[in-house]
Amino acid sequence: MQTAQEELRSANEEMQSTNEELQSTNEELTTSKEEMQSMNEELQTVNAELQAKVDELSRSSNDMKNLLNSTDIATLFLDKELNVRRFTPQATKIIKLIPADLGRPITDLASDLKYPTLIEDVREVLRTLACFEKPAEAHDGRWFTVRIMPYRTMDDRIDGVVITFANITVAKTLEAKLRDNQAVLEKHIAKQSARLDQQNRRPAP
Is the Cβ–Cβ distance between 153 and 145 less than 8 Å? Predict the structure, then answer.
């Protein structure tokens, strides 16, 4: 009986020790649960902030897209390797662009412009960081003012170029008409001057 009692006491002590360990483990689990809940709340807060930023970026992107489309100016964005980054729908009427061309080099794409030095001018803008502008005629008679500018990021880094194509066909047509009218007027004045000279050279009766 003494042996049995000692064994029971020993078993009881072991159970008490085990119970203490279980209580300690339970306390640790409770602490871990509280920490997890706290982390979960922090993650939810961070997620809400990120979602708000995503929504803000989406609105900004939509605003920029509508702004570019409303100007009716063809715009082409290239990265530093002259790969297509973005373009407006108007640009597809000048350069043969489709959505699958994003990431392709501009040198691989066909253009309606009679502008063989476009790539050289783009590289020169990247080298000098100075804007460049010139008129260029298309094969179908349209005229555009081509403007090439460095693409600057918010932290003032150069990350490519922006090319805009402003349609100046109407102005060019009017300019040609004015030149023609001026030429006709100059011929008429020359004829009148020649006639007056002839009359002045005739001897008086």
Answer: no
Cα atoms found within 13 Å of the Cα of residue 22, Cβ hemisphere only:
6
Please report, for the chain, the start and end positions of each structural domain, with discontinuous segments joined by +.
1-70, 72-167, 169-205
Rounded Cα distance, 99 and 47, in Å: 32
What is each CA distance from 101 to 104, 115, 159, in whole angstroms? 5, 20, 19
Cα angle 62, 87, 100; round to 5: 105
Tell me the sheet residues that pair with 78.
84, 161
Q: Bridge-partner residues for 102, per DSSP?
A: none
| Domain 72-167 in this protein, CATH class | alpha beta
Q: Hey, is 143 helix, strand or coil? A: strand
Condensed to tens digits (0 to 9), the pLDDT of residues 26-46 reads 888 888 888 899 999 999 999
Residue 107 has φ and ψ, to the nearest 5°, of: -65, -20
The two three-digit tokens of residue 144, written as one number: 């555009």
The residue behind tokens 């350069």 is 95
Estimate to the nearest angstrom the gap between the alpha carbon of 12 and the chain centroid.
75
Mean per-residue pLDDT for 111-135? Answer: 94
Residue 42 token pair: 């922090």
**What pLDDT digit, counting tens, does each position of 60-100 carry?**
888 877 877 777 789 999 999 999 999 988 999 999 999 99
Q: What is the mean pLDDT of the chain?
A: 88
- Retrieve residue 51's tokens: 């979602």
